[in-house]
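Following up on my earlier thread - several people asked me to post the actual chain instead of describing it. Fair enough. Here it is, all 437 residues.
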Amino acid sequence: MTLKTILLGACSVLAMAGLASAETLTIATVNNGDMIRMQKLTDDFKAKNPGIDLEWVTLEENVLRQKVTTDIATKGGQFDVLTIGTYEVPIWAKQGWLLPLDNLGADYDVNDLLPAIRSGLTGDDGKLYAAPFYGESSMVMYRKDLMEKAGLTMPDAPTWDFIADAARKMTDKANEVYGICLRGKAGWGENMAFLTATSNAFGARWFDENWKPQFDQPEWKNTLEFYVNLMKDAGPPGASSNGFNENLALFQTGKCGMWIDATVAASFVSNPKESTVADKVGYALAPDTGLGKRGNWLWAWNLAIPAGTKKADAAEKFISWATGKDYLKLVADKDGWANVPPGTRTSLYENPEYQKAAPFAKMTLDSINAADPKNPSVKPVPYVGVQFVAIPEFQGIGTAVGQQFSAALAGQVSVDQALKSAQQLTEREMMKAGYIK
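Reply from S.P.:
Thanks for posting it. Predicted structure:
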C-alpha cells in the first residue's frame, strides 16, 4: 500500500468523522412572521457554527402548544429547542422540564433584557430558563383615514365606548370594510388571551381570592355581551375562526378599521411590502372602561431547552444567536430597523435608528411597561398573569372556555349559555385539581 493510499484513506476517515460529528438541532416554532424570517436568516448561524445543522418544525399556534406540551410532559425528546410563551416558562422550570440558560456567552448582555419581560422568564432560583425572541403587549392599530372619514380623532388612551362607537361608524359592509377585527378563534392563547385581557378592563377576573370561578358574575356578562354585539355589528364575517394571523391578513388588505392585538403586529401592518395600508396606520393604548385597568396583555415568545435534549450546548448556542444583539443588527441590515423583533431589549428602544424607523416603538414600550401581571384586574386575584392564569390547569380550562366563547360569537349558543358552561367546566376542573371543594 502506497503512502498516497494511506493518506487518502486517513483523509476519508477524518471526513466521515467530521460528518458524523455534525449535530442536528430540531427546533419547534410558531408560524408567525418573525419566526419565518429567522429561518431565512439561519445561514448566518451556520456560518458561525459549522458543526450544527438545523431542522425546523413550524406549526400553527394551538398545534405547537399541544405538541410541545405533550412532548415535554412525556419526556419524548422530539425537540432540542422549543418556542414557548411566558405562561409555560415558570411552570415548566418549576417541574424541572427546562434547562437553565447559564452559558449564553460573554457578549449576550442579559441585563439589557427589558425587566418586565425578563422577570417572567426567571425561575425561583434567579436563573433564566428561556430567552425572549420577541416581547409584546397589546394595543390599538387603526386606519387614520377611516377614523377621519368617520369624523373622529383617536385618543392616545381610548375607552371601550369610544372604540365601539368608532367601529360602528367606520363599518362599510357593502365594500367589505369592517370597523373592528378581534380574535375569535378558540384557544387559551387565541381568543382567551384577548378576552381575558379585555375582561380585566371591565372589572372581571377568572377566580376570586379563594379560587372560585367568576363566570357567573355580572362583569363577565358585560365583557362577553359587549364583545359579541360589537363583532356582530362591526366585525368581519366568520370572525369565530380568526386568530392573530387571520386578522393580520384582513388588516393588511384594508378590510379592518381597527385591530386590537399584539404590539408585534405593528411592524407588519406598517411594512409597505406586506401591507396595502402601511402609510395610514395609527397606534393607541389598549382601551379601558374607566375602572383603572387597560386591556393590554404581556407576553413573550421565547426559546428554551427541554431537559430531555442530548444537545444542550448546541441548543444554547442557537438561542444565544437568535436572541442576541447581533441578530437584531442582522435583521436591520437585511430588512430594515422597523422589522427587528421588538419588545426584548432596552438598547433597542434607546437606538435612534430604531426610533426613527419604528413609529410604533414608544407605544409598544409604554404598553409593555403598563401591564401588571401581579395585579391584573380591578379586584384582587390569587394568580399571576394578565391574559392567562399561571397555573398548570389553565391550558386545558382556557381552551375549553375559549370554545364556549367562540361558539357564542358564531351564534351557536347564547352569551348566557356560554358563561354557564364556562362556569360549570371551570368549577369541575378546579375541584378535580383540589383548588376548591
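The radius of gyration is 23 Å. That should answer part of your original question.
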